[in-house]
Automatic annotation (TrEMBL):
<dbReference type="InterPro" id="IPR013809">
    <property type="entry name" value="ENTH"/>
</dbReference>
<dbReference type="GO" id="GO:0035615">
    <property type="term" value="F:clathrin adaptor activity"/>
</dbReference>
<feature type="domain" description="ENTH">
    <location>
        <begin position="1"/>
        <end position="123"/>
    </location>
</feature>
<dbReference type="GO" id="GO:0048268">
    <property type="term" value="P:clathrin coat assembly"/>
</dbReference>
<dbReference type="Pfam" id="PF07651">
    <property type="entry name" value="ANTH"/>
</dbReference>
<dbReference type="GO" id="GO:0006897">
    <property type="term" value="P:endocytosis"/>
</dbReference>
<dbReference type="GO" id="GO:0030136">
    <property type="term" value="C:clathrin-coated vesicle"/>
</dbReference>
<dbReference type="InterPro" id="IPR008942">
    <property type="entry name" value="ENTH_VHS"/>
</dbReference>
<dbReference type="InterPro" id="IPR030224">
    <property type="entry name" value="Sla2_fam"/>
</dbReference>
<dbReference type="GO" id="GO:0043325">
    <property type="term" value="F:phosphatidylinositol-3,4-bisphosphate binding"/>
</dbReference>
<dbReference type="InterPro" id="IPR011417">
    <property type="entry name" value="ANTH_dom"/>
</dbReference>
<dbReference type="GO" id="GO:0032051">
    <property type="term" value="F:clathrin light chain binding"/>
</dbReference>
<dbReference type="GO" id="GO:0051015">
    <property type="term" value="F:actin filament binding"/>
</dbReference>
<protein>
    <recommendedName>
        <fullName>ENTH domain-containing protein</fullName>
    </recommendedName>
</protein>
<dbReference type="GO" id="GO:0080025">
    <property type="term" value="F:phosphatidylinositol-3,5-bisphosphate binding"/>
</dbReference>
<dbReference type="GO" id="GO:0030479">
    <property type="term" value="C:actin cortical patch"/>
</dbReference>
<dbReference type="GO" id="GO:0007015">
    <property type="term" value="P:actin filament organization"/>
</dbReference>
Amino acid sequence: MSAIDLARSIKKACSLEESAPKRKHVRACIVYTWDHSSATQFFSIVKSMPIVNDDVQLFKCLILVHKVIQEGHGSALKEGIRNAEWIRSLGRVHSGSYGPLINRYSEFLYDKMMFHASHRGFNSGTFEYKEYTSLVTASDPDVGFETCMDLMDYQDVVFDLADMILASLGRARSSELRVSALIPLVTETYGVYRFVGPMLRAIADQVGDREAIEHLTQRYNAQHSRLFEFYADCSSIKYLTTLINLPKLPPMRSSQPVQPVQSMQPVQSMQSVQPKTIPADQRLAIHLALQSVSHFQDPVSFFSISQLANEIATSTTPTIPTIIQLTHQITTLLQRNPSPLLAQASQLYFQALLSPSQQDIINANTNLQNLLINSPAHIFDPPTPQTHTSA
């Protein structure tokens, strides 16, 4: 993906239409930072665009920047910190219908950058506990205590922004653009929640006295209740539930910090360990796997496969997310209805993408399209759940 393609994706993600930034354009920006191991070009292009003249474009820009910092290469966070004052300045521009939201969102992103600038144990825009304890020597309980305090303060800032967005929706709750801003906030709040619980338990195990962190435990449980209410509000927004799966929180327990449902087992020691070195090819494989899994809910149809195959075949520089999406569509179809002919045609299609000859790609695509057209319609149907009857 070239810088020109990146600029085109940024422009489309921050279009004038009052609609949510399209996922494919946001993902293209994220993938660019991974492909180039840098977010410098992304911020350079965003800062040069005339988005400050329109509050819709500016609000979409803040969502885009937030998502890239969250999911992009680690350099995206560093670039975000370098550009923190510029991000903050965006909140002083507009007084229109999105003005208050823009002001609060830009202040939130500035606070996020300041938090990460003060806590270098987080290598990315998310909050991974194991990553943090592998990078920071936290044998002193006071360090962990202060980190938890700062994270809880930060969580309150996220809640305030989320409450403001929810309040701006009104009863209709039909504004796709405003609703889309809740998606990175769901990720943000759950990341903090999953981090603080194991950290509190590790501190308690280290000092041997749970009463020493009683105040933090009570605050953590209070935030658990507020988080539950936030996700309940989000679950009532139909459009939002079609985009993401909301986290499921465990029931409240008053005696100790609640245990998050997913992964995150308490770490017995907070001693520093050597960071695990992951080769570049493994990082790429993991990144591609994450991309593929993200499409698990995509509907599979003749139209979707045909459209993706045509898009890739006719593009001079097909994007990684599009290739991954097509791969997921075809493998899902093959799992439902194993077809040696479809498997062979698909293999030839992907092999042709490596060919320097555009004609090879066209021929392989034509072969795949003809096979899809001549396939019976029922092969695209999802599997029917089997029922068991007792004798």
